[in-house]
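Write out this protein's structure.
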Amino acid sequence: MRRERLVVGLDVGTTKVACLVANVVDDFIEIIGMGMAPSRGLEKGVVVDIGRTIQSIRKAVEEAENMADVKVESAYVGIAGKHIRSLNNSATVSITRPDRIITAEDVRRVVEAARTMPLAPDVELIHVIPRQYIVDGQEGITDPVGMTGTRLEVDVHIVMGSVTAVHNLVRCVEALGISIAQIVLEPLASSMAVLSSAEKELGVVLLDCGGGTTDLSVFRGGDIWFSKTIPIAGEHITNDITVGLQTPIEEAERIKKAYGTCLVDAVGDEEKIEVATIGGEGTKTVSRKKLAKIIEPRVEEILDLAMQEVEDAGYRDLIPAGMVITGGTALLDGMVEFAQRRYGIPARRGSIPQGIHGLRDIVESPVFATGIGLLKYAVEGRDFVRSKRSRSGVAGGGMFNKLFRWFRKFLRG
């Protein structure tokens, strides 16, 4: 029997808010609505102005609602920012029943034991993700239910965030009448959109390089092992261009997207570009190589900080699948080649996976990696921290609901 539902992914980022509405039949995801708006009111992934953040979310959601002809009532919401912290933990329980068969209740007990730890009052759990189970010393088990053993262990990856940051994001979404099915770590969501099973199994580092932050995560053995947020990303590149070329911030963003590259040696000395001057009184001609010389050091800093975190965590030699770069800044020319040259590892730009249908041609960009990942998380996620706020989905799909809305509008005149 087919299971059909509507799922919403809401990516509230530092520079943009993206809302994706999908019709999900079993594991078939058909995107039927998309909305995007400039993000106002966030800094480095953290809400600093609730009113402006609500306005940004409203604009993106309404655009998606109009395209899909639905009313968004619930959403999977991405979270990132400098307040995010993570750690790995483990726990063990005994199986004392005579038959020694491990049940779902035993799995719940061991995960609950792993997540039970002293937390500061200003910290809230976001995820408790089982990396592997161990039964009587046998490692690498993904689902121990039904197996026989006397000792069940679990290794988990725990993600935490600031209570204030989490609750302010929740407040902004719920102010629009949207309940939250679950808060999801954005790099975890992005990984579900752009990483292959083989990459996750071998060992890979994912860089979700957005506007305000670069979210880093390491995967091995099919699961997340390490996550970190670096408070430097695309906005810093734009600001460098603004100062270096003495041009307005909007113009700096435009020329970054149109002419920017982080490979200085790939630009000819004769290449010139027209840049608006501050005050809007005219334009000036500058060398494209000068632009590249502004961009390259900042990209180098972002990637070096990320790789240093990987090395400090002890995973530098455990990522044979290399690096996958996603997020809006991944579109910057030369990012992949720069990483390959500097670190001597495989690198690629994250692409949208197979199995995504509907508006695929519109959302097939690293910009929408988190939004699509949120949809896939709703279908495939196996996380043990679940929101109690509501079930996932939206109301308003189907012919009956369309007729109902038309009739209601008719009565209103």
